Amino acid sequence: MDAGVFDHWVKRSLLDVESALEVWVPESAPAGLGEAMRYAVLGAGKRLRPLLVLAAAEAVNGQREAALRAACAVELIHAYSLAHDDMPCMDNDVLRRGKPTLHVKYGEAQAMLAGDAMQALAFDVLTPDTGVAPALQARLCRLLARASGYDGMAGGQAIDLASVGKPLDEAQLRDMHRRKTGVLLQASVLMGAACGDVSDVAWQSLSDYGAAIGLAFQVVDDILDVTQDSEVLGKTAGKDQDSNKPTYVSVLGLEAARAYALQLRDQAHKALAASGLADTAWLSLLADKVVERDN
């Protein structure tokens, strides 16, 4: 696959997502709330989760309207989680996506409300009056809710906060990262797949692919936290080490963590090969992008 073709697909997909978010995230929300929401979600970030939704939807010839809504919904959930995670009561970070975090820019109360509003808006976006069948709306909402809640992102963050300064073995660390980061990435793939007709074999293969890249993403994040500076990362480098948080680097060592990320990428490729789907090129290249990124 020509890298230029992939880059063109990424640019077109990102433009579609950004244009839709511009429409669906209301500037008119009262008392500056809309401004804070738009600051948190527009014009920044890798948009990996939306890209996974759209790539999976294309692999199964899925409905474009539903896939675009799912892509925006998962990005809204991601943005809300970052807004809350960065607050002083949690990770207490001041830099996100190369700019001041939401609570630094707008205050803690507004950041909390903007996060709440983005979480609710995600499910509003998934349930339009027309254009997406009610059964598909329900399925997409269920996938996103489960990935966001106690058994997914929120549960992983709870484990993360409770693990500061405590030794974790590799299995415990993997479970924390699976919940905190991996499950939402996996759900992004499955939400895209749900927009089309997919066999049980393909669904399981895409689920396995999503699980592998979800964990790989966090392993690479742990590596970058100790190998890159804040300017490159767009967030505070060395924060996990300074906060005495367990990471894949602290548990396995740097070289073993790098090897594990490559192993997970290979698992993702094998899962795609087992799916029986005719064209998984975008998903394959996104798996490479997850592991080879520098921020």
TrEMBL record:
Keywords associated with the record: Isoprene biosynthesis, Magnesium, Metal-binding, Transferase
EC number: 2.5.1.1, 2.5.1.10
MF GO annotations: (2E,6E)-farnesyl diphosphate synthase activity; dimethylallyltranstransferase activity
The keyword Phosphoprotein appears for this protein: no
InterPro entries according to UniProt: Isoprenoid_synthase_dom_sf, Polyprenyl_synt, Polyprenyl_synt_CS, Prenyl_diphosphate_synthase
The keyword Transferase appears for this protein: yes
Leader sequence residues: none
Top-level lineage group: Bacteria
Xref: SUPFAM superfamilies: Terpenoid synthases
Cofactor(s) this protein requires: Mg(2+)
Family note: Belongs to the FPP/GGPP synthase family.
PANTHER family documented for this protein: FARNESYL DIPHOSPHATE SYNTHASE
Protein name per its UniProtKB record: Farnesyl diphosphate synthase
Source lineage: Bacteria, Pseudomonadati, Pseudomonadota, Betaproteobacteria, Burkholderiales
